[in-house]
Amino acid sequence: MITFGMTHSLGLYLIPISNHLNAGREIFSLAMALQVLFVGIAAPIFGGFADRFSPAKATSVGILILVISRFWMANIDSQFDLIGSFILGGFGGAGFLGIVLGAVGKSVNPSNRSLFAGIIMAAGSFGQFIITPIINTLIHNIGWATSLYYIVYISLSLLICSYFLSFSGRIKPFSEDSGQTITQALKEAAANKNFKLLTIGFFVCGFHVTFVGTHLPAFLEDQNLPYWISGWALALIGLFNIVGTLMSGYLSGRITKKNVLCAIYSLRSILFILFILSPMNEISVLVFSSILGLLWLSTVPPTNGIIADIFGPKYTSMLFGITLLSHNIGSFLGSWLGGRIFDYAGSYDYMWLICIALGFISSAFHFPIKADSFEQISKSQENPI
């Protein structure tokens, strides 16, 4: 809840920090892009660390790095400071999502993994709903730099969450251990066609989410809409993502997960088409944000579930981290290209068209996925949660 709320608020800093540095939007977009890229690069490392030692130790390291990065961000004086603080934040940010999903996945009935992943994502979205409007208000009342100190204080509270996360490592009634090593798991994943398709498709999720999260506030300000609309647009995405992720997790346990993903990506593209063709006002923005929230991070439960179905839960954190790297390469391009294209063309029109095309392409990549090898083994174990 806390990490998602803070992370998805960073787009609110695009214009004030760009003005502070007297730079175009591309430099902030590049910094955001590098942050999510380094989350992806570090995710398999943190995931392997968590699988080998403990989730609590991995998240504790991530928290401390995140705190340092946000303190640095509050004191930037140059483009180097901006990019450096965001890269460091990327390393720290890798110590959360994949690790938590992996820890919980090892502790629950295999048939309920996607549902529990949906609950985790819903909690994160609730944080986006609560924290984003607060940060937006702080930026406009006490300044962007001072607001970052509040993020530092809140981040320190995550150490308490990390302590309690350590208990999940002691409860593994459903943790199937095939005796497979990390090297063997990586070789199997590299040779698996379904894992490759899933990883390529997840690239588009990152592109969509980070482009919207980074550039939607600036896009709305370009439309001469009131300042509060950007904070509430991001907040509504988070609020409705609670429903979306829970629904996705529930459906992923009852119908084919790849069909859930095909539907999500196709519906995103249709929604983008309707949004850019609609009149741009407060009502259309809030409706768009609410519907997008249903499709926002609802890709995570079925994606994480497919990985566990194919390979089992033992190395889920590490393998999801590899898939997350693809997601965050997409995030890098979604953030950076948004700023680059805006500075070149003076609008985001081309980016919306790219988002539409990529959604349909991702749906086509997910359609041939077959993920039943480990799932069939799991179904033979009728252990209630």
Write the layout of secondary structure elements.
Elements: H1 2-7, H2 14-20, H3 25-52, H4 55-73, H5 79-93, H6 97-105, H7 113-142, H8 144-156, H9 158-165, H10 182-191, H11 193-222, H12 228-252, H13 257-277, H14 282-295, H15 300-311, H16 316-345, H17 349-366, H18 373-379
Helix pairs in contact: 2-3, 3-4, 3-5, 3-6, 3-16, 4-5, 4-8, 4-9, 6-7, 6-16, 7-8, 7-12, 7-15, 11-12, 11-16, 11-17, 12-14, 12-15, 13-14, 13-15, 13-17, 15-18
Which descriptors apply to this entry?
Growth Hormone, Chain: A, 18 helices, disordered C terminus, globular, single chain, mainly alpha, 385 residues
In short:
The protein is mostly helical and 385 residues long.
Description:
- The protein has 385 residues and is an all-alpha fold.
- It has one domain (2-165, 185-379): Growth Hormone, Chain: A (Up-down Bundle), CATH 1.20.1250.20.
- It contains 18 helices and no strands.
- The chain is globular.
- Residues 373-385 have low confidence and may be disordered.
Which percent band covers the strand fraction? Answer: under 5%
CA gyration radius, whole angstroms = 20 Å
How many domains is the backbone divided into? 1
Please, what is the average pLDDT? Answer: 83
Order of helices and strands: HHHHHHHHHHHHHHHHHH
Q: What's the CATH class, please?
A: Mainly Alpha
The CATH topology assignment is Growth Hormone, Chain: A
Strand element count: 0
Helix content: over 70%
| Structural class by secondary-structure content | mainly alpha
> What profile does the largest beta sheet have?
none
